[in-house]
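Re: Re: token formats

Sure, here are both.
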Amino acid sequence: MRNHNALRRGRTFAAMLLGSTALVVLPTDAAFAGSCSWAGCSATFNDSPLGALAYFNWCRARDITGASTDREPTCNNDKGQPQNTYYIGSGGRTPGGQDWDAFRVDAGWCYRVRFLPGAGLWRTYDRRGKSALWVKVGDGAEAHILAQNSTSPC
């Protein structure tokens, strides 16, 4: 009886070990496969009461978080993944475990944004009376859209 219990405990331990290994390895690989760099995923959070639009690919090399362009990013990324957009409702965010590289500041609007981690970088992107603007969110960074306004003050 003693050997039988020891054998059962050993099998149970082996099954738990195998199961816990799969739980640790599989979600991590699945979440980052082909999506995020070694620095992590970029993400956009919409903390404003209005909707926002995120872009999957940035299309320009060597830009840092907060960099911007008035040309819509339409390229595939370096892994051949096509450009996609994602609507972020009020209080929402881009999907976790995916690398969403940019967001759009709509034409005629002013956005107040905080970038994290660290102490944070605060930026105001004022496009009132101007065309749209696209803003880079670097790998491992978060952009928090805090406010959107089409009138004064920004």
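Second one below.
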Amino acid sequence: MALMNDSLKSQLENNWLVPEGGQFPNSVAESAQRFADAVVQWFSLAQANGIPCATAMARKAQLVASATGALSAQSAQAAGTQLAMGVAGYIAGQSFPPGAALFPLAASSAASMMIGAFSDVNGSISQKASTIASACTILATSTQAAGFPLPAFPTPMAPIV
């Protein structure tokens, strides 16, 4: 299955980012857990050339740990960079028998996007969720799984009219 950017955006918007009047997480660790839940649920649907990801759920703790560090950062630049690298590290090494995912090629672009989302203090929740979901999608679509052609994780194709 192709990774759907909109499904991750919805997960981030509804379950991680706090809408106006919503309930904030009790801790950075809880916020990181919510972020990881959304990303892992989305990425567990990934397939490299039709072969499903065998390790998405098993590596969730790694993403929670990375996200906790990133969300504890004291600046938008550090938070965005660390979160992008955490998601990139989570993607790298995922198992798609007969190969494993390599490090995403667009890590620096994704980091820039996440820095922008964290820096935009006046941006809407929807806008931030969209930017972070797009950064995660760029990470996935710039990843090659050993033994598979690039990109390993295709995005949905536009309908042919």
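The chain is about 55% helix and 5% strand. The helical segments are 5-16, 28-43, 60-71, 76-91, 107-119, 125-141.
- S.
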